[in-house]
Amino acid sequence: SAVISQKPSRDICQRGTSLTIQCQVDSQVTMMFWYRQQPGQSLTLIATANQGSEATYESGFVIDKFPISRPNLTFSTLTVSNLSPEDSSIYLCSVGSGGDTQYFGPGTRLTVL
Amino acid sequence: GESVGLHLPTLSVQEGDNSIINCAYSNSASDYFIWYKQESGKGPQFIIDIRSNMDKRQGQRVTVLLNKTVKHLSLQIAATQPGDSAVYFCAVRTGGYQKVTFGIGTKLQVIP
Predict the structure, then answer these.
(1) Do B46 and B75 form a contact (C-beta atoms < 8 A)?
(2) pLDDT at residue B98, as a whole number
(3) Residue B64, exposed/middle/buried by CB under 10 A (0-12, 13-18, 19+)?
(4) Hey, are the CB atoms on A100 and B36 less than 8 Å from each other?
């Protein structure tokens, strides 16, 4: 399975600011995914990031709030914009390594004050 | 749309006993099922998967059972150890390349 890292591992941000989360994979992958995991809850897919095209967003998530970049096959960023306390969550990236299974990064824990 | 749920939010088992975690799904077109383990402060870790053309698959100390008739799957952990304490999620694919829906999670507590 791919080795996935995320930066930062955690952050505390002020309301109204933005946070950009980086996801790096040790091999080239076609599919990268961004999830949100609110405290004590399950994972909700935000968007699918494909290299060379715009991200595909799930219902309830919009590009203005969660812009995503995917400049190459090993890297992606998720920005959470105009932060509010409701955005306090763990943000996870995952990759599809060519098979059916997704493998996850360690997550970024965001707290918004 | 797809809904995926778990019967028990918290499961406490004695060390050495077997654990069974259940998951129900709603879409009969679902074709691929995965169990993940998430320890505190970490991302979900792949445990085992099963395709819809199978009804049982075994790994090391873990077994996944799939009952497509009632749209139910379970994860069995044999001889549960303290290191098994975590939240377990089922994830279900219903069309779409690698796109899955996660269940609500079950917290497994192992009592030494």
Answers:
(1) no
(2) 67
(3) buried
(4) no
| CA of A47 vs chain B CAs: smallest distance (Å) | 10
Per-residue pLDDT at B83 exceeds 90? yes
- Report the pLDDT value the prediction gives residue A39, as an integer from 0 to 100: 86
- Judge whether B45 is closer than 8 Å to chain A, CB to CB: yes
| Contact present, A10 and A70 (Cβ < 8 Å) | no
Query: Using alpha carbons only, what angle is made at residue B44 by residues B38 and B46, rounded to the nearest 5 degrees?
Result: 105
Residue type, B2: E
For A22-48, the pLDDT digits (tens) are 999 999 988 899 999 998 889 999 999
B93: chain A residues, CB-CB within 8 Å:
100
Whether residue B42 and residue A106 make contact (CB cut-off 8 A), yes or no, is yes
Q: Do B96 and B1 touch, CB atoms closer than 8 A?
A: no
Instruction: Note the pLDDT tens digit of each residue in A4-22.
Output: 999 999 999 999 999 999 9
